[in-house]
Specification:
SPRY_dom, seven-stranded antiparallel sheet, six-stranded antiparallel sheet, elongated, FN3_sf, 317 residues, 0% helix, Jelly Rolls
């Protein structure tokens, strides 16, 4: 009578590359030799976790645009965006939601206003989903965008947090439409941000289409709108420019903090003295494309952008 022998029928293979395809087969060995190979099986390892590009993400009260890098050399099949809602800002209510089969490395997500979310991304291939990416926190209290440093004029510098723009003492005349752009705002509805300036700085703040010519001043064409401040020996001069034309307006109190209110649906772009809650001017226009917030310094000075804040009640009456 032959004794039974316990032979392992499985094997753990380690140190495989992520998102890679392998052929696996098995042979049996005894004292007389090695058997023919089994049929080959194809196996795909799961991808590496994506990497969310936080400096390229933006949000508003109704949505967020999330961008990420694949983290994989080989293409993946799709991505899954996972949301963990923490309820109204400051509460602990947790609701989980997944958006599956996202085909590219960005996703526009519809959200609830006044909430806070943890957002992460998984890459998916035939082998399954990757681990979660590192999560980022998104709040929908107001419109939030980053300044796009790659659009900044070489004479500008920026603060560490990326929201204060400095122009030094060099003699220079800008020949470009804008000095720096904010993220494209790709969500219909209402958006609000503020710009802090001092009374000696000459600036232009406004919005422009993505295809606006960069060799023209902001407000000088039909694809950009702006508020302009000019310092003359006798007074502060303000213009509200579109297509190179401005209405004849006199502003008696210099606005230190300027509110900018964009309403895609109503077709309005309004400017306010935020400290006084004073309306300055409104452009009425039909926005046929999404726009970038735009900021320019025409002489040495500084300009600070405040966003992610709730629009005051008086801005969208």
């Amino acid at each position: 009578m032959m004794d039974s022998i316990n032979i392992e029928t499985h094997c753990t293979v380690t140190e495989l590359l992520p998102n890679a395809q392998y052929e696996l087969w098995v042979t049996a060995t005894n004292t007389t030799g090695i058997s023919p190979a089994s049929e080959k099986a194809l196996y795909m390892t799961v991808p590496s976790p994506p990497v969310i590009k936080q400096r390229e993400c933006s949000s508003c009260p109704e949505a967020a645009l999330i961008r990420w890098e694949s983290g994989n050399t080989n293409p993946v099949d799709s991505y899954t965006v996972e949301l963990s809602e923490t309820g109204t800002v400051g509460t602990e209510n947790s609701i989980t939601e997944s958006i599956v089969a996202v085909p590219t490395c960005q996703c526009l997500i519809q959200l609830q206003a006044g909430r806070q979310y943890l957002i992460s991304v998984r890459a998916v291939n035939i082998g399954g989903p990757s681990d979660r990416s590192d999560a980022i926190t998104i709040s929908t209290t107001g419109t939030f965008f980053y300044l796009l440093e790659n659009t900044a004029h070489p004479c500008l510098s920026m603060s560490e947090d990326g929201f204060t723009i400095f122009y030094g003492d060099e003699e220079f005349t800008f020949t470009r439409c804008v000095a720096i752009l904010g993220d494209l705002i790709p969500v219909r509805g209402r958006h609000y941000w503020e710009v802090e300036v001092d009374d000696e700085t000459e600036f232009r703040v406004g919005v422009a289409y993505e295809d606006t010519e960069r060799d023209a001043y902001l407000g000088a064409n039909g694809s950009s709108w702006c508020m302009r401040h000019i310092r003359t020996p006798s007074r502060h001069k303000y213009e509200f420019l579109h297509n190179g034309w401005s209405p004849d307006l006199r502003i008696t109190v210099h606005p230190v903090r300027i509110g900018v209110a964009l309403d895609y649906d109503r077709g309005t772009l309004s400017f306010f003295n935020a400290n006084l809650e004073q309306h300055l001017h409104t452009f009425h226009c039909h926005f046929h494309n999404y726009v970038h917030p735009c900021f320019s310094l025409d002489n040495p000075g500084a300009l600070t952008v405040h966003n992610g804040i709730q629009a005051p009640d008086y801005t969208f009456i």
